[in-house]
Amino acid sequence: MMSVETEIRFKLNGREVALMVPVTMNTLSMLRDKLGMTGTKYACGEGECGACTIRIDGKTVNSCLMYAVDCDGRELVTIEGLRTPEGLHPVQQAFVDHGAVQCGFCMPGMIMQADYLVENNPNLTREEAQRGLEGNLCRCTGYTKVLDAVEAVVEAKKCCGRC
Amino acid sequence: MNEIEQYLAPRRLDEALQAMANGDATVLCGGTDLAPQTESGARQYTAKLLNIRRIDGLGGIAAETDQVRIGAVTTISEIRCHPALAEIAPVLVEAAEHFASEQIRNAASLGGNLCNASPAGDMIPPLLVLGASVELACWRGGAVQTRLIPLERFFVSPGKTVKLPEELLTAVVFDRPAADFVGKFRKSGPRPALEISTVSLALGARIADGLLSNVRVAMGSVAPTPLRARHVEAALEGKPLDAASIAAAVAATAEDAKPIDDVRASAWYRSHLVRVFLEEVLNDVRGN
Ligand SMILES: Cc1cc2nc3c(=O)[nH]c(=O)nc-3n(C[C@H](O)[C@H](O)[C@H](O)COP(=O)(O)OP(=O)(O)OC[C@H]3O[C@@H](n4cnc5c(N)ncnc54)[C@H](O)[C@@H]3O)c2cc1C
Ligand code: FES
Ligand code: FES
C-alpha cells in the first residue's frame, strides 16, 4: 500500500536528524532501511521478542510497533548510542565478562532493556531483573548468565556510583 | 484500496476533533494494537492518520479529589507506577502489573486498550468493578462536545464500541473508592508475561461488619465483550463471606460466563478457570 510521506526531526544518539518517512513506516524499518542503523534487530515484528528494543525519551519500547512519525521532536537512543568514548558500555562489558552472549541476535535489545532497568533501579534484584526482561526472548543462553551479568552491573554501580 | 492522504499530530484537542469530524481519521496512540492489525490486514487505514499523543491535556492521572481522572494517552507503565492509584485503586495497578512486557507497557495507552475493545483487554475488568465511565469528545455545532458513558455500556462486540467515528476517548473517570472497598484482579495465560488473557476476573466490593455490599464482579474473555457478572454479584450482595456464599457465587458463574472454544483455550477450561479465580479472590478477601 502506498502512503504519504512526512518530514520528521528528532535526536538519534545525540545527533539531530531530519528525514522523510512514509507515515505508516515503523521505527525499526526507518532505523534499518532508511538510516542504515542495523544494530537494532528485527525478529518477530510484533512486540513479542524485544530484539528491536530502543529508548524513546528515556523509556524502552519495541521499535517494530512504534510509528516512525511518532519519533518527531523526541530523543531516540539505539544500541549504537550506548558505546562510550572509552569503548563498550559497562552493561555491554558485563555481558561479555559473564559469557552472557551466544549467537548475539537478541543482545542489542536485551542490553538496551537491561541498561534501562539498571538505570531506573539502583537496587534492582535478580527477580526484578527477570521480570523487567520478560519482553526479551533469547533462544540461546537460557538467561542465567544474562541475569548474572545484570546483577554484576548493579553491584558495580553500588560500589563506585559512577558507571 | 485505502490510502492515507494526510498525517496529523495536533497539539490542541479542538484541532484534533475538527480533523475527526468527518469520521475519516484513524486514531494512533501507542500503536501497539494498530501496528499489528494494519500490518496483518485485519484493519484498514482511512484518509487521515491522527496521532493523539501530542495533544495537550490528554495525559496524566488526577487522583487527589473525589473523582479520579485518567487521561486517554496515559500509559500502562504510568498507571503501574502511580503511588496514589496504588493506594486507592490497587485493583487497577495489579492489572497493569500483569500487562504484556515493560516495553509494551511503556507504549500502550489506557484509551487504546479500551477503544481496541478486545474481550481480553486487561484494563477493562478492574475499571468495571471501579464503576468507571469514559469521556467521549467530538466537534459539533462549532464547539467541543463531550458525553460520559458508563464503561459497562461502552462495548458492543469484539473490536466494536458505542464510540462514533468522529469521537475521541479523552479520559476515564471513576469515583474515589470508599475506604472499605476491596478490589482483586486475576488473569491467566500459559506464561506470566506477554500473554493475552485466557480468562480474567476482577472483584470489587465494600466490606463492613463482615458483610459484602456494592459487589461488582467483572470477567474478560468469557463472552464477546468483557462483562459484569450479575448473577455472581447477586449471590454475594449483602452476604457474609463464608463457605456457603462463596459456593453459591462459584455456582452462579455458569449463568454469567458463556465462553467459547478458540485457539487460546476451550470453553470448558475457561469456565473452570472462572470458578477457580472467583473462589481464589473471595478466599483472599476472606483471609484478610
Ligand atoms: C505483544 C503484545 C502484548 C500485549 N499484551 C497485552 C496484555 O497483556 N493485555 C492487554 O490488555 N493488551 C495487550 N496488548 C494489546 C495492546 O498493547 C493494548 O490494547 C494497548 O493498551 C493499546 O494501546 P495503544 O495506545 O498502543 O493503542 P493503539 O494501537 O494506538 O490504538 C488501539 C485502537 O484504539 C484506537 N484508539 C486509541 N486511542 C484512542 C482514543 N483515545 N480515542 C479513540 N480511539 C482510540 C485506535 O484507533 C486503535 O483502533 C498486547 C499487544 C502486543 C503487541
Ligand atoms: S521485532 Fe520487535 S518485538 Fe520482536
Ligand atoms: S544469544 Fe542467541 S538469541 Fe540470545
Task: Set down the secondary structure blueprint.
The complex is a heterodimer of chains A (163) and B (288).
Chain A: E1 5-12, E2 15-22, H1 27-34, E3 53-56, E4 59-62, E5 75-77, H2 90-97, H3 107-120, H4 126-132, H5 144-160
Parallel strand pairs in A: 1-5
Antiparallel strand pairs in A: 1-2, 3-4, 3-5
Helix pairs in contact in A: 2-5
Chain B: E1 6-8, H1 13-20, E2 25-28, H2 34-39, E3 48-51, E4 61-62, E5 67-71, H3 76-80, H4 83-88, H5 90-97, H6 102-107, H7 110-116, H8 124-129, E6 133-140, E7 143-150, E8 155-157, E9 160-161, E10 168-175, E11 181-188, E12 199-208, E13 211-220, E14 227-228, H9 230-236, H10 243-256, H11 267-287
Parallel strand pairs in B: 1-3, 2-3
Antiparallel strand pairs in B: 4-5, 5-10, 6-7, 6-10, 8-9, 11-12, 12-13, 13-14
Helix pairs in contact in B: 9-10, 10-11
Distinct ligands, ions and cofactors found in the model = flavin-adenine dinucleotide, FE2/S2 (inorganic) cluster
Q: Nearest-angstrom radius of gyration of chain B?
A: 19 Å
CATH architecture of the largest domain in chain B: 2-Layer Sandwich
Identify low-pLDDT runs of chain A.
none
pLDDT average of chain A, as an integer? Answer: 95
The level-1 CATH class of the largest domain in chain B: Alpha Beta
CATH structural fold name of the largest domain in chain B:
Uridine Diphospho-n-acetylenolpyruvylglucosamine Reductase, domain 3
Distance between the termini of chain B: 58 Å
Task: Name the helix and strand elements of chain B from N-terminus to C-terminus, one letter apiece.
Answer: EHEHEEEHHHHHHEEEEEEEEEHHH
Strand arrangement within the widest β-sheet of chain B reads 4-5-10-6-7
Mean pLDDT of chain B: 95
- Under the CATH scheme, which architecture of the largest domain in chain A would be assigned? Roll
Per DSSP, the total helix count of chain B is: 11
State the end-to-end distance of chain A: 47 Å
Task: Assign the CATH topology of the largest domain in chain A.
Answer: Ubiquitin-like (UB roll)
Question: What count of helical segments of chain A does DSSP give?
Answer: 5
- The geometry of chain A reads as globular
Structural class of chain B: alpha+beta
